[in-house]
Amino acid sequence: MQIGLEALAMDQKGYRRGSFQSSTSDEDMLEIAGASLDFSMAEDDPPLDREMGGFTSYNGGGMNGTSKMMDFLEEPLPGVGTYEDFNTIDWVREKSRDRDRHREITSRSKESTWALIHSVSDAFSGWLLMLFIGLLAGSLAGLIDISAHWMTDLKEGVCLAGFWFNHEHCCWKSNTTFTDRDKCPEWMSWSQLIIGHGEGAFAYILNYFMYVIWALLFSLLAVLLVKGFAPYACGSGIPEIKTILSGFIIRGYLGKWTLIIKTITLVLAVSSGLSLGKEGPLVHVACCCGNILCHLFTKYRKNEAKRREVLSAAAAAGVSVAFGAPIGGVLFSLEEVSYYFPLKTLWRSFFAALVAAFTLRSINPFGNSRLVLFYVEFHMPWHLLELVPFILLGIFGGLWGAFFIRSNIAWCRRRKTTKLGKYPVLEVFVVTAITAILAFPNEYTRMSTSELISELFNDCGILDSSKLCEYVNDFNSTKGDDLPDRAAGPGVYTAMWQLALALIMKVFITIFTFGMKVPSGLFIPSMAVGAIAGRLLGVAMEQLAFYHHDWIIFSGWCSQGADCITPGLYAMVGAAACLGGVTRMTVSLVVIMFELTGGLEYIVPLMAAAMTSKWVADAIGREGIYDAHIRLNGYPFLEAKEEFSHKTLAMDVMRPRRNDPPLTVITQDSMTVEDIETIINETTYSGYPVVVSRESQRLVGFVLRRDLIISIENARKKQDGIVSTSIIYFTDHSPPLPPSSPSMLKLRSILDLSPFTVTDQTPMEIVVDIFRKLGLRQCLVTHNGKLLGIITKKDVLKHIAQLANQDPDSILFN
Q1: 394 with 613: CB under 8 angstroms?
Q2: Could you give the CA distance from residue 122 to residue 781 in angstroms, rounded to a whole number?
């Protein structure tokens, strides 16, 4: 019966613009959500309570007289049942609301053909939305890839055939030989363009100067756009998306302006040569697409829980286009970012990822019919003994991951707590200048990080002109396409020194880059660090096998003249190990890596490295980089993977504590409008328990502060006779009052009649489990049926932080 009453109350509450007409268009209306489609450009400012009520006017005359007043709020009010910025949604209420909506559509579908068509379109709308998200995410990813590739090459020169061609496209029609394919006459470096020749010290200095100037121009433009138009467009976005998917609301984070600015500034930031990637921010871009497209469909626009299912699928589409890995994208969404992931969402994520990957493949941004720049194919199988160096790479990845997380969090905390945070433009300028000045002399840091990874993954062939492939050739022993292990030439040794210097630079500069006020992903820099370490180890193993093939470890499987060791494979395993050490991904990481390389037979080395790096990194610190940033920012994220093992009770955590003032409650039928407005003005709580009377403290239900504000303001405007001394009642029937008393206000329909309650003796491990699995905002504590206190999600998080010897005041939001 109680559930039925709650369903009825929710049905009456509705969610948004019922039969009310907005004073502005639907587009201008504030969607108080983990997202917004707010076209007023003020989407990043939290809304004020007093602004919430003034949206609407009735379609018709006002309500007057006591008889009408009894039915006040039977019609849904705009804003009632929605949430304020930086608050958590009530998953139970949202799911209940969706079930009621679905039940109503199903029952109506039997009444008429039109209702049946509506029912079918409602069921199909989810798939249609996934199609739109896939198309939009794939198109934006293609645009970002093409633009970033062109602007990265712009730092070094320009194409005379057409300035819009990048270096590779410019030289496609040239008649140069294969080895000189990068030196076509159509492509001119800045020194050739300005002083007429590209040789000599002055030409080198000029090219150096132009490289640094372009890098500074791109990064400054990026940070100024972020600062001026969309502060939420900075960073990778994955920590915030994890928090939003857990039910938190960051209004404007997935809005229109964030999408536009993030797309533009992501191209600028990647092109500037900073040590960052576009893969993490592409997840944010895809989620922005998902959130904006949700507004086309009522069932997603009006229900926060349903919207989060769409965002989970959008995150999968984002990874799908970032790595060309649709299955890896679905697993990434499931393993890393999603909080609630039902089977239906799994299928829809798969479809969205498929459409996004297909769209990107149709655009073909790299001109190689592949979805990513660093697709490679290896031909040689690996040997069991090679698991030892693979595991060593896993250990390196875990150590680097733990070191990076600690260093980066320490730097970001310093940025937040000192004056450094007040000068984001200066910080970006300095870091870009240092990066560009150090990067240019070394060809492996001068090229874009994606190109570097592509080069490191590459298996040397006969026609390769890279320094990494300058071996001493003995073509007598060549069999088909496979080249035997050969002695390293001078080019390889030069490349090794340059790569070692590049490794040191990447390790340290990435610490200061991630977290700046520009879009910055961590996947590509992490993979670059691992790929460099892996390639260095791979070449060392190759030379060891060449010169000492008679050693016992090589004698069984590596004879002279055979192709035993593939250095590119070591680079791939190292990349997976370092990315795993930083993010703590396992299953999704391995799948992404084998989808990247098309090498199913290398799954075991990848699994060994990913698992080792996770174990090593977990032994040093339990948190991945995204969880660490969530904790640093004080978001109320309740980690589902962590176990709560302490023996505390609900009464130890609930408020009020022993010396605190008593719990603020509302009585069901004896408080006036003025009394309730006083409570609202004097407290900042998100909601209030409703009790029979202050003496009995018997619980009736729970009412949200925001619903109260909107309902009272609307009643004052729309109803005659509502004054400060009017009684507010939450019961079915009005309390007996003298005839001379003012009109009463019935607010039963905004009352949650089935709030979640536990007794004061409930173990906290059960309470924590309830909060995790049901996604509660708050839980009321009773003793023998009487209300004792309240536990909010923030209280639970503070309690967990306290028990882990962390600062409980670091949890900033409800």
Answers
A1: yes
A2: 39
| The pLDDT value given to residue 268 | 95
DSSP assignment string, 37-81: --TTS-TTSPPPGGGGGGGEE-SSPPB-SHHHHTTTTSSPPTTTT
Residue 108 in tokens:
């109506």
Residue 408 near residue 507 (C-beta atoms within 8 A): no
Q: What is the pLDDT of residues 737-761, one digit of tens each?
A: 777 788 888 888 888 888 999 999 9
Res. 316: pLDDT tops 60: yes
Distance CA 769, CA 638 (A): 10
Report the amino acid identity of residue 237. Answer: G
Residues facing 763 on adjacent strands: 649
* Amino acid letter for position 771: F
What is the chain's mean pLDDT, rounded? 83
- For residues 529 and 444, is the Cβ–Cβ distance under 8 A? no
Distances (CA, A) of 423 to 321, 418, 426: 34, 10, 5
380-421, pLDDT tens digit by residue? 778 888 889 999 999 999 999 999 999 999 999 999 888 888
Q: CB within 8 A of 120, min separation 6: which ones? A: none
Can you spell out the DSSP letters for 72-124?
Answer: TTSSPPTTTT---TT-B--HHHHHHHHHHHHHHHHHHHTT-HHHHHHHHHHHH
> From CA 563, how far away is CA 538, in angstroms rounded?
13
**C-alpha span between 212 and 208 (Å, rounded):** 6
778-783/757-759 β-pairing:
parallel
Strands, E assignment, 715-809: 727-729, 745-746, 757-759, 778-783, 786-792
Beta bridge partners of 482: 479
Q: With beta carbons less than 8 A apart as the criterion, state whether 25 and 38 touch.
A: no
pLDDT value at residue 84: 80
Compute the distance between CA of residue 591 and CA of residue 582 in angstroms, rounded to an integer. Answer: 17
Q: Is the dihedral of CA 241, 340, 94, 101 positive or negative?
A: positive
- Give the β-pairing of 687-691 and 666-667: parallel
CA 556/CA 141 separation, integer angstroms = 47
Question: Are the beta carbons of 277 and 143 closer than 8 angstroms?
Answer: no
pLDDT of residue 179: 53
Beta pairing, strands 757-759 & 687-691: unpaired
Using alpha carbons, select from 340, 336, 279, 331 the residue that is nearest to residue 309.
340
CA dist 622 and 289 (Å) reads 32
Mean pLDDT of all residues in 769-783: 90
**Which has more confidence, 788 or 489?**
788
How many angstroms separate the CA atoms of 111 and 121, rounded? 16
Closest of 544, 605, 598 to residue 574, by C-alpha: 605
Query: Could you tell me the CA-to-CA distances from 789 to 655, 656, 694, 761, 784 in Å, in that order?
Result: 5, 6, 13, 12, 13
Who contacts 456 (Cβ-Cβ below 8 Å, separation ≥6)? 468, 499, 528, 531, 532, 534, 535, 568, 571, 575
Centre a 10 Å sphere on the Cβ of residue 502 and count the other Cβ atoms it contains: 24
CB 139, CB 363: distance < 8 Å: yes
The torsion region of residue 697 among left (phi > 0), alpha (psi -120 to 50) and beta comes to left
**CA pair distance 157, 207, nearest whole angstrom:** 8
d(CA 312, CA 341): 8
Beta carbons within 8 Å of 426's beta carbon, 6+ residues apart: none
Question: Which of the residue ranges 555-559, 670-674, 760-764 would you say has the lowest mean pLDDT?
Answer: 555-559
The dihedrals phi and psi of 78, each to the nearest 5 degrees, come to -65, 135
pTM of the model: 0.84
Contact (Cβ atoms closer than 8 angstroms) between residue 560 and residue 548:
no
Cβ proximity of 514 and 313 under 8 Å: no
